[in-house]
Amino acid sequence: MRARAAASLAGGAKPAWPSILGALTGRAGAGLNWRQVVLSAAVSIWATRLGSYLFRRISADGSDSRFDSIRDSAPKFAGAFFAQATWVTLCLLPVLAINSLPVSALATALPAAVSLTDILGILLYVGGISFEVAADRQKDKWVQEKKNKEHDEDFLTRGLWSKSRHPNYFGEATLWTGIATVAGGVLCSGTGQVGMGLAGGLAGKVLAGCMAGVSPAFVTFLLLKVSGVPLSESKYDKRYGDRKDYQEWKRNTPMFIPKL
Which of 42-46, 75-79, 166-170, 216-220 has the lowest mean pLDDT? Predict the structure, then answer.
């Protein structure tokens, strides 16, 4: 849009609008690279899926118990708000970086051909989000069955939850690793280095790799050390920590990475 506005003010010919279809088919002059389209779509799918899932869950429960202790405290609520803002920014950093590369570099230097990092990243994303969705659906079904008095279990130990105590969190970390892998392959390339104004060489590649890797690293840190696993484990330990069946499930089921 800036390029079209500048051309209009200068009285020159306006450049064509970016073409999503052209980017996906590798057409020259599309104004976009297919990786920008795919990664942006991947984030949109993740956000829509997670947002709708949480909305349905909170609507059914009437509230989100995770915010019970901070809702009435302005400092605590502000802390949670800014922590989430930081989380979103760091998660999106690889996608923001690749989307900020100049059109000229994307059109002339970045190959449209699929690379190894593209294949690996897409597989990780698809596998991760599929794993997370399956785990969430299994838990929703279990909760509904409990409400319908179809079982009297106090904690879920079936399906993916028999392979990992937190399969949904594992899927979340995996999908962001996939996004970072695709973005990292571009950012560490010569095109990515030039587009970001880096000098290249080892230092430039390390910096680009860190820009991509900070996303899954931060997500995994939050899930394992801050808001995900610790809160859940603490809650269930207090409720069922003295029960032998719960102790056996914890002993035989990995906390994060699923067993085969």
Answer: 75-79
Tokens of 162: 């028999």
Query: Tokens representing 137?
Result: 């659906």
pLDDT tens figures, 135-187:
999 999 999 999 899 999 999 999 999 999 999 999 999 999 999 999 999 88
pLDDT at position 198: 76
Q: Where are the alpha helices (DSSP H) in the chain?
A: 2-10, 20-24, 34-61, 74-99, 103-108, 116-147, 167-187, 190-195, 201-221, 229-240, 244-252
Instruction: Using alpha carbons, select from 16, 15, 23, 55 the residue that is nearest to residue 40.
Output: 23
Structure tokens that stand for 79 in this block? 């802390």
Neighbours of 250 (CB within 10 A): 17
Q: Are 50 and 171 in contact (CB under 8 A)?
A: no
- Which of 160, 128, 129, 158 lies closest to 142, judged by CA? 158
Q: How many CB atoms lie within 10 A of CB 82?
A: 10
Which amino acid is it at 71? R
What is the pLDDT of the chain when averaged over all its residues?
A: 84
Which residues fall within 8 angstroms of residue 98, CB to CB, at 6 or more apart? Answer: 35, 36, 39, 183, 186, 187, 192
Question: Residue holding tokens 């990243």?
Answer: 121
- More confident call, 54 vs 117: 117
Neighbours of 72 (CB within 10 A): 9
Q: Whole-model pTM above 0.70? A: yes
Nearest-angstrom CA–CA distance, 204 and 198: 6
C-alpha dist (Å) from residue 128 to 46, 71, 95, 120, 133: 10, 31, 17, 12, 9
